[in-house]
Write a structure and sequence with these properties.
alpha/beta; Rossmann fold; seven-stranded parallel sheet; two-stranded parallel sheet; 9 helices; about 40% helix; binds uridine-5'-diphosphate-glucose; Epimerase_deHydtase; galactose metabolism; isomerase
Length: about 300
């Protein structure tokens, strides 16, 4: 069987590395381009241990660099690209909006140009439920109105709109736009997982640090939201299920020749307190926490 080859930009990150495993297991050949800005080379070694080295290639490089992309596309014949490479901290995006525009929008634009040049027209794009802004309908349908509530959200929303523009007059393109809810968990081997640099911003890696004693307590942002226990409710999805979503997206593009835009979540929300209690029940470790009013994330 000839395997299709897929380029994974940002493929050594949290979601990318899990998707690499799912793709190789589904029969794809995977080439990873990653600048190691929020990952390490050891993740690639771990992937090799998990799925064997034969179907994986790693190239260290930046998706905003046209010359790098030109070389990658001339060295390989790709069926499609899964584009993960982007900055993802909401707080940082407010502090450094230009860096976010340059990487998230500039990177996508550079990638699209390189793809067109190489005549590779299948792209699965990492979007986010953040494109729904502050909407409170639950579960939220893909047809809901979109808005940007911060610079990070702006980069995701405008990337979606860029893809719509590019695809609208050119049938050669197929875009799988995947709107992620909150990915958590790790591959069952624990050989790969979520390993943010510095102090984690997201709930689960933060709780991990509290559980292992490297941070003293969790600060729960907000206890008077209009939710059953007052703490924030999110739709958490296992990262391997999310990874599988990328395989399905590529398979659907191949089967139909068409793109799609889909939410990837479970449709079930859990509060911060429910997450803490579940973590404590499974690990047997007490998670000290303190609730503060409002959200600190966006200050
Ligand atoms: O130290 C913490 C961290 C988080 N939370 C709460 O935990 C929940 C989950 O927070 P987090 O893991 O930071 O995710 P979100 O705020 O939902 O943001 C995620 O979901 C967005 C889409 O909805 C994406 O755009 C972001 O990249 C992604 O981080 C929320 O209620 C937070 O207020 C805390 O109480 N304390």
């Amino acid at each position: 069987m000839t395997r299709h080859t897929i380029l994974l930009t940002g493929g050594l990150g949290y979601i990318g590395s899990h998707t690499a495993v799912a793709l190789v297991e589904a029969g794809y050949q995977v080439v990873i381009l990653d600048n190691l800005s929020n990952s390490e080379r050891s993740v690639f070694d771990a992937l090799g241990t998990l799925v064997g080295p034969n179907h994986l290639t790693f190239i260290e490089g930046d998706v905003t660099d046209a010359a790098t992309l030109e070389r990658v596309f001339s060295d390989h014949s790709f069926f499609g690209v899964v584009h993960f490479a982007a900055l993802k901290s909401v707080a940082e995006s407010e502090a450094q909006p230009l860096a976010y525009l340059e990487t998230n929008i500039g990177g996508l634009l550079t990638l699209l140009r390189a793809m067109e040049q190489a005549e590779v027209f299948n792209l699965v794009f990492s979007s986010s439920a953040t494109v729904y802004g502050d909407q409170e309908i639950f579960p939220i349908p893909e047809t809901a109105e979109r808005s940007a509530v911060n610079t990070y959200g702006f980069t995701k929303l405008s990337s979606e709109q860029m893809l719509e523009r590019v695809g609208s007059n050119d049938d050669r393109w197929s875009f799988g736009v995947l709107r992620y809810f909150n990915p958590i968990g790790a591959h069952e081997s624990a050989a790969i997982g979520e390993r943010p640099n510095g102090i984690p911003a997201n709930l689960l890696p933060y709780i991990d640090r509290v559980a292992t004693g490297s941070l003293p307590e969790l600060v729960v942002y907000g206890d008077d939201y209009p939710t059953p226990d007052g703490t924030g409710v999110r739709d958490y999805i296992h990262v391997m299920d999310l990874a599988e979503g990328h395989v399905r997206s590529l398979d659907a593009i191949e089967a139909t020749g068409e793109g799609h835009t889909v939410n990837i979540g479970t449709g079930q929300g859990y509060s911060v307190l429910e997450v803490i209690r579940a973590y404590e029940a499974v690990s047997g470790i007490k998670i000290p926490y303190r609730a503060v009013q409002g959200t600190l994330l966006f200050i």
